[in-house]
Amino acid sequence: MSIFSIGVDDLTAQKRFEPDSRYAKHDLDGDGIVSDEELRREERMIRIENSDRMADQQRRMVWVSLLSVCAGVVVVLTPLVSEARLNIIIPFLQVWSITNLGIVATFMAASAWSKRNGSKKEKI
Ligand SMILES: [Ca+2]
Questions:
Q1: In angstroms, what is the span from residue 71 Cα to ligand 1's centroid?
Q2: Whole-number pLDDT of residue 95
Q3: Which of 23, 65, 71, 72 could make a disulfide contact with 103, Cβ separation 3.0–4.6 Å?
């Protein structure tokens, strides 16, 4: 065995990506090798993006809850609802308001709790 062929087997045994592989984008420094560190960094970025999207979604849901309660109260106060139907609508609106404001309160409590826990982790 020639000394020039030593290590060639290791080089040729290295895995490569097909030209349009979706994993090729994980090679962040462009050296042609996707290292474990690059994969970890990509995984962390994906987790951060997902949690950001989830927070946006929760914020939207809370806004819809809050605005639907306000809209419900405003609609009941307008002449659109006759006095005869108020006896039916008001109990429904009470339950609607309590459940939706419960969603808002839960969201605010959860964000305050997570903010407090997040700031504790940063100090460590
Ligand atoms: Ca790389």
A1: 54
A2: 96
A3: 65
State the CB neighbour count (10 A cutoff) for residue 82. Answer: 8
Copy the structure tokens of residue 64: 């819809």
**CA 10 to ligand 1 center in whole angstroms:** 18
Ligand 1 centroid – CA 6 distance (Å): 24
Ligand 1 centroid–CA 26 distance in Å is 8
With CA atoms as reference, report the closest residue to 96 among 65, 74, 118.
65
Residues of the chain with pLDDT under 70: 1-13, 119-124
The alpha carbon dihedral of 20, 22, 25, 30 has a sign of negative
How does DSSP classify residue 56?
H
Cα(54) to centroid(ligand 1), Å: 30
Ligand 1 centroid to residue 33 C-alpha, Å: 4
Q: What is the reported pTM?
A: 0.65
**In this predicted structure, what is the pLDDT of residue 40?**
94
103: enclosing H helix or E strand:
helix 83-123
pLDDT in tens, 100-112: 999 999 999 999 9
Contact of 32 with 23, CB cutoff 8 Å: no
